[in-house]
Every structure is written in structure tokens, then in C-alpha cells.
Amino acid sequence: MDGNLLGNRVITQIGLLVNDIDKTSEAYARFFGVEKPQWFWTDAPEVARTEFRGASSDARAKLAFLDMGSLQLELIEPDANPSTWRESLDQNGEGFHHIAFVIDGMKEKIELLGRNGYPLLQKGEYTGGRYAYMDTFQDLKVLIELLENDR
Amino acid sequence: MDGNLLGNRVITQIGLLVNDIDKTSEAYARFFGVEKPQWFWTDAPEVARTEFRGASSDARAKLAFLDMGSLQLELIEPDANPSTWRESLDQNGEGFHHIAFVIDGMKEKIELLGRNGYPLLQKGEYTGGRYAYMDTFQDLKVLIELLENDR
């Protein structure tokens, strides 16, 4: 391994799993004295084309974002379909899920990380870009999400 | 509750618990193509004056910091004495522990959060400042650390 695998080390998001996005959004809004963010569903399966552990999944999640200065907190309430969100929430309960980095060249980055021992865990599309969760836990003690936004 | 309880919403650190700070520091250095950070022990008990769940503790930890753009990743390898670090590592294993915010007026902030339902979990001193972990987990799904640096 040489150089920076991501080409970037600025954390852009911290992702948290929650059971009730409305309740947790409200708690954050009160704690930090900001407006309660509006949650929204991730895209429908035919747009998101989610793959989790190599298999297609209809998984969706409710998302809400809070601006925390230099990065965003992302609240994630997953549905019951197979996903890293659902798996982690069932196994570990509510709380931290991942840190995210903006990258260029998703396909190449997934291959590069794979060659370096960090396999793809889940990927999907969203309006305006795509994401991939890479299984970096054993070495880095966190999951890393790659985000690529269309220009 | 009105206004921002912390007077700030810029996350300055993300704290991760690890079993082997040398090994995880090395993994981060390789992954991000940076120099491996040097770890150091937190201050001795007579300086740190650590209190965990209201009782004095001799707990110490090895710490290492990685600059991740707009914030720091803090790696924490606790010793065996009672602390939120040791408790969380034993109960939940390696990984995420807290997010930290720089605040002014530690005593007042601890009282304000306490009055709003967020009790003090652990506090201590370090050369140049002091910290407090507040038990915000039930509402915010993360622990919050307050940091106050002397001027």
C-alpha cells in the first residue's frame, strides 16, 4: 500500500443508526438549538440498485442530515430489508455506523481498496451520485463510506 | 431547553476505542498515506484527577491523534482501571466512543447539561485543559465530550 488510498482524508459525514428518526432528529434540534431537519426516503430500488454482500436488495432507509460545522451528521433509520444499516442496527443497536469521504472514480477506488484487503460491503446509487461502504472495520475500527457526486 | 446547550456545534474530534494503539495507528497511517502518530499516556492520576460515575479513578489511557482535515480522529487504548473507555471497550468492543466539542466554562456547561437531563459520566484534567463526557446517549445516540482549553 502506498500513498493515500482515498486521495482524501477529510471526513464529510458521520452516520448514525436510529430506530426512530423523528424522535432523534427532534432531540438533536433541541440540543443544538437548530431547526429539526426533514427526513426523506432513499431512492426506490429501481433507482438505488442496492447491492449488499454481493446480492441485490430492496433496502431503503429514512435519512436526515444535521450541519455540524465542518461536516454533517447523518441519521439513518433503515427498513427491514437486508443492508449494512439493518444488520448493524440489529447486531449493535442504535448509534455510530460509518464515517464518509468524498472520492473521485468510484469503480477504481472500490477495486483499489479491494486489492488492499478492504472488500465492498454495500453499494448503491442516489440522485446525483453513488456510494459504497467498504469493510475497513478490522484495521480501522470503523466502516468507511465512499461518496461520489456527479459534476 | 432553549438555544444551543454547548454554544457550539463544530465537532472537533471523533474518539475510537482500540485494543492495540500501535497496530491501529499503523493501519491508519498506511491507509491514509500519513506518518504514524506517536501515542502518549494521559496524565498521571494526581494530575488527571479522573472521576468516573462520581468516584475517583486511577484510569489512564494511551492516546494517538490523526489529523483528518477538519477534525481529529483520537485513538484510545485504556488501561484496566474504571473508566467510560474501559467500560465501553469491554461491553461493545473496539470502535466508536464519542464526538467532542470545544466549549467555554466547563463547570457551568456540566450543570446546564445536567439540568437538561444529560448527567456527567466522567471528567478529568489534562495539561492545558479539562474534559467531561456527558451521558447524551439515550437522546443523541452518541456520547458527547466537552473540551475546555486554557487560554
Automatic annotation (TrEMBL), chains A, B:
GO BP annotations listed: L-methylmalonyl-CoA metabolic process
Keyword Amino-acid biosynthesis among UniProt keywords: no
Superkingdom to which the source organism belongs: Bacteria
Gene Ontology molecular-function annotations: metal ion binding; methylmalonyl-CoA epimerase activity
Key words of the record: Metal-binding
Domain named VOC: residues: 10-149
Keyword Metal-binding: yes
Family as reported in the entry's similarity comment: Belongs to the methylmalonyl-CoA epimerase family.
Protein name: VOC family protein
Organism: Cohnella zeiphila
